[in-house]
Amino acid sequence: MKIIIPSAAETGIVSNNKLWNRALLLAVITICYNIIEGLISVSFGITDETVSLFGFGLDSFVEVVSGFGILHMIVRIKNNGGTKDAFEKNALIITGVSFYILAFGLIITSCYNIYIGNKPISTLWGIIVSVVSIISMLFLMKAKMDVGRKLNSDAIVADANCTKTCLYLSLILLISSLLFEIFKIGYFDSIGAIGLAYYSFKEGREAMEKSRGNSCTCSSCRS
Predict the structure, then answer these.
(1) What residues have CB less than 8 Å from 88, skipping those under 6 apart?
(2) Is 4 exposed, middle or buried (0-12, 13-18, 19+ CB in 10 A)?
(3) Does residue 7 lie in a domain region?
(4) Distance between CA atoms of 98 and 184, rounded to whole angstroms?
(5) Is residue 90 part of a domain?
(6) What pLDDT does 37 receive?
(7) How many CB atoms sit inside 10 A of residue 178's CB?
(8) Number of folded domains in the chain?
């Protein structure tokens, strides 16, 4: 019986395909997670009248648009590489504009709530959602970084670094929600929303820079 031993090149191709498939799966998980997180956050943000949780949910929906762009990017690089196409550029522009609008809306709403002295009914769900998000983002960030380094892909590593921003958003939500539950001072919820607005604006700026082909802090679209 003839034994066929795969060459090193063939073994490398199979290994790379598995890694790209893993990157693809992580992108799908990220999209699905953000959809669920967005629905829960917006729903309880409205019910509990907490602007920070509501804004966090809207941010998750914007991340879904960004996620589809990343998913498309991974498929493109996996198949044939090349530069960003129209789909990715449009996704980045939509993401950037959406983050700008979200940041502006959060600032206006937060300032208005501070002015009239409005405060949430409860921020318990903000605590629950943020804790789950922190755990999820840590897992996704580590998994994406591992795959990106093994593939020597700047694009995947950049996506992993961008997940840190989601982690920061979750930490802001957690801190503001905890402070409100302890002291029952409505300013903490509004200040948390302003913190979310800062990072939303930052994400919007980075998305617009990427759409123009410029490098930025957490992103690079090279293969």
Answers:
(1) 69, 72, 73, 76, 221
(2) exposed
(3) no
(4) 31
(5) yes
(6) 98
(7) 16
(8) 1
Quick one: tokens of 146? 């591992």
Query: Dihedral through CA 69, CA 71, CA 72, CA 76, nearest 10?
Result: 130
* CA–CA distance, 30 with 175 (Å, rounded to integer): 23
Task: Look at residue 220 and tell me if it is in a domain.
Answer: no
In a domain? residue 223: no
For the chain (length 223 residues), average pLDDT per consecutive 10? Answer: 45 74 96 98 97 97 94 89 80 95 97 95 98 98 96 88 92 98 96 96 93 63 44
Please identify which residue in the block is written with the tokens 């949430």.
120
- By residue range, what is the domain housing residue 125? 15-211
Q: What is the CATH number of the domain that holds 121?
A: 1.20.1510
> Tens digits of per-residue pLDDT, 80-94?
766 778 888 899 999
User: What region does 81 belong to: left with phi over 0, alpha with psi -120 to 50, or beta?
Assistant: left
